[in-house]
């Protein structure tokens, strides 16, 4: 028996409202129907049911969307996905023969609940505050309209595009083989992602390890002989969350941010867009390096431009010029097809192995079959592809697993020598003169391009041309690293100065706005901030030019496994202090408070003297705090994320304080805060550190073993106290970065912190890493206080850090 799938497609959430709705406003009864702009609203106002029109489409659908707490219309369920209506005034949703039925303009039923009922006259449809639409056989019945014990798995199926809710190519389902794992399929056939089996002890899916770091959702999986299903609920009842099978082919968890009035991406799988099978369609190539993800192969063009504009790439690309063999001409009457060399690609699936002893023999085999569209010849032998090429991915130049594909194109797609027949002598002489002029012009242009001459903008900030940076980085050949906002490459300017060039992704600003924002950031100078030297803005190309940091990022040093290369305690302390000074400058010394929003070891760079420099501090301002790319990477970002990011309250500089505190714990331990031990259990270091501090145990037991106890106990205790205060659940209890600097400098002393509730929960159950976002009402009301230790003051001064 196939397991029954139950997913929390809508939400599990509860609100408290003073309902102003009249009795029955959430109900469709035998004497009440819906047409036109009429709707029914759940009792608490959470959800609305009625006709809606997605985007610029002229089609109308019956659906359920969020109510008065979400200002952006977000549809969570659609009845007539495949059969839209045009005239809602003539269409009608009503009770008919004991079912809820949608009739179109011609009064033809196009959707029904298809439930048998013995008392059709008393059946009503009720929209519940949980988002469920329920058929009840009488006013007091609670019988749902879906049979929960079927022999078929229920699927989450993506929309075709943002304006068409018709079933798309991507679907999520529980494994019909009964393995308690979820699968994502392309076209219901090709599996390209799995969650791994459910681990009841750890309460996670084995291939989704980030579930261990969750502090928003409570996960549950049920399985017996009749049914299997997965649900989630929210620890914070005020959080609005949704789980969707997106048109991108990724499953996504989003939460509503009331402050910015937008949906925030919390989690998605697969993490990389190009891991979605055939995302770019036939003869489309997917590239992770930058936007857009999808491009047509050379010799092909978009089959449907309008669909691509709606992020629907499923139709893929088609040939610009037909192949010679398709034109049904012999080789004597036309030029034979040729092959375009495409290096560094991930080869498509479904290749056919062919016996061939050389690359020329492999090519000849493909040419003899008009249906052969490409071939590859390497150490794995000769392989050819028949028909469409699907799931082709362009890899980075330094990718170790890149292969070379030979793509079949019409001969006219390649440049050819000119036909000189009939050219008179005078024309030939004129052509020679023209060629000489073009050559001279080309040499002048080449010499001009090889000399980088950026223009000064607002003083010391430089505006580079794209070709300038392309030349400086040797066509972006030496990659230093990358993250959610883009990739960084090493470059050298003509004056021999070394630079780091960051190619930005997901930047939507226009030229003028981008220059204005960058110019503002370029004026910010501090010894503990990476200096922005310049920028490039040409169309969709947006790049930032920084000073090069020879010692790279902090994570490469902090988590180094070789004892001889471990950072000394003195160095760690100075890096922590320098980082705090840089953040304090951003928060308190700039004209406008700048919130970094992504503090982690990867964003702390080290110069030649191991002086810390906060990097990427302006990206939140440039990108508008769109963290959809950052949160989908597993580079530690979510381990440093403050609870208020997900709960939807306005984010302040205290979010950076939280991230900084989480990073301080790693300064002490020399390891990531959350890691799996040999016994398979997750150890969360901040919980251990907080426990040691409050129980007055030996603080040196917390120190990185590679340091052999070589650290002043006073400094170690000071950093642990600061870290515990920084990660308090209630942001008002966290210190400012200015106060953190004073504490680390020894100017102020700080009292012993309480254990945050989130860490208390972790201490009670070390097998599960679960955070709470709400403040505990019975938690100690203790607030941090600090005492001046400066020798120049006659009296000690005590003050509260809480705001």
Q: Can you give a write-up of this model?
A:
It is globular, with a radius of gyration of 31 Å. The protein starts with 26 loop residues before the first strand and ends with a strand. Helix 7 packs antiparallel against helix 10 (654-669). The protein is 19% helix and 27% strand. By secondary structure, it is α+β, with helices and mostly antiparallel strands. An eight-stranded mixed beta sheet has the order 23-22-30-26-31-28-29-27, covered by helices on one side. The chain has four domains: 27-269, Bulb-type lectin domain (Agglutinin, subunit A, Orthogonal Prism); 284-413, Hepatocyte Growth Factor (3-Layer(bba) Sandwich); 455-547, Phosphorylase Kinase, domain 1; 563-800, Transferase(Phosphotransferase) domain 1 (Transferase(Phosphotransferase), domain 1), CATH 1.10.510.
In a few lines, what is going on in this structure?
With 803 residues, this protein is an alpha+beta fold. It is 19% helix and 27% strand.
Name of the CATH first level of the largest domain: Mainly Beta
Q: Report the radius of gyration as a whole number of Å.
A: 31 Å
Query: What is the percent of helical residues?
Result: 10-25%
Shape: globular
- Between the first and last Cα atoms, what is the distance in angstroms? 59 Å
Strand percentage lies at: 25-35%
- Multimeric state: single chain
Instruction: Tally the structural domains.
Output: 4
Sheet of most strands: 8 strands, mixed
Number of helices: 14
Sequence stretches where pLDDT stays below 50 over 5 or more residues: 1-23, 139-148, 416-429, 447-451, 625-636, 763-781, 790-803
**Fold-level CATH name of the largest domain:** Agglutinin, subunit A
How many E strands? 45
Question: Residue-averaged pLDDT, rounded?
Answer: 79
CATH architecture of the largest domain: Orthogonal Prism
Which structural class matches the secondary elements?
Answer: alpha+beta
CATH homologous superfamily placement of the largest domain: Bulb-type lectin domain
Neighbour order of strands in the largest sheet: 23-22-30-26-31-28-29-27
Organism: Gossypium darwinii (Darwin's cotton)
GO biological process, one term: recognition of pollen
Protein name: Receptor-like serine/threonine-protein kinase
EC number: 2.7.11.1
């Amino acid at each position: 028996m196939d397991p029954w799938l139950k997913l929390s497609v809508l939400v599990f959430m509860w609100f408290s409202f003073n309902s102003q709705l009249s009795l029955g406003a959430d109900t469709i009864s035998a004497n009440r129907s819906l047409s036109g702009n009429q709707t029914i609203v759940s009792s608490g106002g959470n959800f609305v049911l009625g006709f809606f029109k997605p985007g610029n489409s002229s089609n109308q659908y019956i659906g359920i969307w969020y109510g008065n707490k979400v200002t952006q219309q977000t549809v969570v369920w659609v009845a007539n996905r495949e059969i839209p209506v045009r005239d809602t005034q003539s269409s009608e949703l009503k009770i008919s023969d004991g079912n809820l039925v949608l009739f179109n303009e011609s009064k033809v039923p196009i959707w029904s609940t298809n439930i048998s009922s013995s008392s059709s006259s008393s059946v009503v449809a009720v929209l519940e505050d949980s988002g469920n639409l329920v058929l009840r056989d009488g006013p007091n019945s609670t019988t749902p309209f879906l049979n929960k014990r079927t022999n078929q798995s229920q699927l989450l199926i993506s929309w075709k595009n943002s304006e068409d809710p018709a079933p798309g190519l991507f679907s999520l389902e529980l494994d019909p083989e009964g393995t308690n794992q979820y699968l994502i399929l392309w076209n219901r056939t090709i599996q390209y992602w799995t969650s791994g089996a459910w681990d009841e002890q750890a309460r996670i899916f084995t291939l989704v390890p980030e579930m261990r770091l969750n502090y928003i959702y409570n996960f549950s999986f049920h399985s017996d002989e009749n049914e299997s299903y997965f649900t989630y609920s929210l620890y914070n009842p005020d959080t609005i969350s949704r789980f969707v099978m997106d048109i991108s082919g990724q499953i996504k968890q989003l939460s509503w941010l009331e402050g910015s009035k937008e949906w925030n991406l919390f989690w998605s799988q697969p993490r990389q867009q190009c891991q979605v099978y055939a995302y770019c369609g036939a003869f489309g190539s997917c590239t992770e390096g930058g936007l857009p993800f999808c491009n047509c192969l050379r010799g092909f063009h978009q089959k449907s431009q309008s669909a691509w504009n709606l992020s629907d790439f499923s139709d893929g690309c088609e040939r610009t010029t037909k192949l010679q063999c398709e034109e049904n001409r012999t080789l004597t009457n036309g030029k034979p097809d040729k092959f375009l060399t495409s290096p560094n690609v991930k080869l498509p699936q479904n290749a056919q192995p062919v016996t061939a002893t050389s690359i020329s023999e492999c090519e000849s085999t493909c040419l003899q079959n008009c249906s052969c569209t490409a071939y590859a010849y390497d150490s794995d032998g000769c392989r050819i592809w028949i028909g469409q090429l699907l799931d082709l991915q362009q890899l980075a130049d330094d990718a170790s697993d890149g292969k070379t594909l030979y793509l079949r194109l019409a001969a006219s797609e390649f440049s050819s020598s000119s036909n000189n027949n009939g050219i008179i002598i005078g024309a030939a002489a004129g052509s020679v003169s023209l060629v000489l002029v073009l050559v001279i012009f080309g040499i002048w242009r080449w010499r001009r391009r090889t000399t980088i001459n950026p223009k000064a903008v607002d003083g010391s900030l430089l505006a580079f041309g794209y070709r300038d940076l392309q030349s400086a980085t040797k066509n972006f050949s030496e990659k230093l690293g990358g993250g959610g906002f883009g990739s960084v490459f090493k470059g050298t300017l003509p004056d021999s100065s070394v630079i780091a060039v960051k190619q930005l992704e997901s930047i939507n600003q226009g030229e003028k706005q981008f220059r204005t924002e960058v110019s503002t950031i370029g004026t910010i100078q501090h010894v503990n901030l990476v200096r922005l030297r310049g920028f490039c803005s040409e169309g969709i190309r947006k790049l930032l030019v920084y000073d090069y940091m020879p010692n790279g990022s902090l994570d490469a040093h902090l988590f180094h496994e070789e004892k001889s290369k471990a950072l000394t305690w003195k160095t760690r302390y100075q890096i922590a202090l320098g980082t705090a000074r840089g953040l304090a400058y951003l928060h308190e010394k700039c004209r406008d408070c700048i919130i970094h929003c992504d503090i982690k070891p990867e964003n702390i760079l080290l110069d030649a003297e191991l002086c810390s420099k906060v990097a990427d501090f302006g990206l939140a301002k440039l990108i508008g705090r769109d963290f959809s790319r950052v949160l989908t990477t597993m580079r530690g970002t979510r381990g440093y994320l403050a609870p208020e990011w997900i709960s939807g309250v306005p984010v302040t500089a205290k979010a950076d304080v939280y991230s900084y505190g989480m990073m301080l714990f790693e300064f002490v331990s020399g390891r990531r805060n959350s890691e799996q031990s040999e016994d398979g259990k997750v150890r969360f270091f901040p919980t251990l550190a907080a426990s040691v501090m409050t129980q007055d145990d030996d603080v040196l037991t917390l120190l990185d073993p590679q340091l052999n106890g070589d650290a002043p106990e006073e400094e170690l205790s000071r950093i642990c106290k600061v870290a515990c205060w920084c990660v308090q659940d209630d942001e008002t209890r966290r210190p400012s970065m200015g106060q953190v600097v004073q504490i680390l400098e020894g100017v102020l002393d700080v009292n012993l912190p309480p254990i945050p509730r989130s860490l208390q929960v972790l201490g009670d159950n070390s097998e599960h890493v679960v955070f709470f976002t709400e403040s505990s009402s019975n938690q100690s009301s203790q607030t941090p206080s600090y005492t001046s230790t400066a020798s120049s003051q006659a009296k000690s001064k005590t003050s509260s850090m809480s705001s």
